[in-house]
Amino acid sequence: MACARRARLSILLTGIPLVQLPLPLQIRPFVPADWPGVWTLLEPVFRAGDTFPHDPAISQHDARRLWVDQSQVQMVAIAADGPVVGSYYLKPNALCLGAHVANAGYVVAEQQRRRGIGTVLCQHSLETARQLGFRAMQFNLVVSTNAAGIRCWQSNGFAIAGSLPGAFRHNQLGFVDAYVMVQSLVGGAGP
What dihedral angle (degrees, nearest 10) is formed by the CA atoms of 127, 128, 131, 133? Predict the structure, then answer.
């Protein structure tokens, strides 16, 4: 199944339209030359230790492995003047019998936040996941203090499926709750 999904991916990515936004902005597949721009977005977010569970001291090499090498799809949002202003990855949430549920991660440049880029990246990832045959998308550890992220995910159809008390060790606040959020990508209620 993984091999079939990879084959479909290469066909689908060539058929996914580049998204043009009013900013203007373009969403397109990641290419290796994009990594420095993506790392510029990821590094301060990882270092803050308030939204992603990765070690705040993560190396650039390990971050690339997590964001790019271990993901099935990697996309970037490019501003009209050229810089990467956002990115997302998409991958199966689990192995084998759980691989029909997608997982994704998103990052937006700090100076570009609250302009709808996260929403557009989320919507693009949901459509890409549907095209790849995923039946649902699940976020495993949405930090309860990430109000902007929670609002974005809920406005894009995600529901809180459960609360994990004290599951995230926030860099400034200590142990805080985290949510599991999910959205079906097919008709009906479940994955």
Answer: -100
Query: Position 4: which residue type?
Result: A
Domain that holds residue 73: 2-135
Number of domains in the chain: 1
Reduced DSSP (H G I as helix, E B as strand, rest coil) percent helix, strand, coil of the chain, to 5: 35, 35, 30
In a domain, 91, yes or no: yes
- Measured CA distances, 113 to 34, 38, 154 (Å): 20, 15, 17
CATH of the domain at 109: 3.40.630.30
| pLDDT per position as a tens digit, 80-115 | 888 999 999 999 999 999 999 999 999 999 888 877
Distance from C-alpha of 79 to C-alpha of 141, rounded to nearest angstrom:
29
| 3-state SS class at 11 | helix
The structure tokens 């991660």 sit at 105
Note the pLDDT tens digit of each residue in 25-74.
899 999 999 999 999 999 999 999 999 999 999 999 999 999 999 999 99
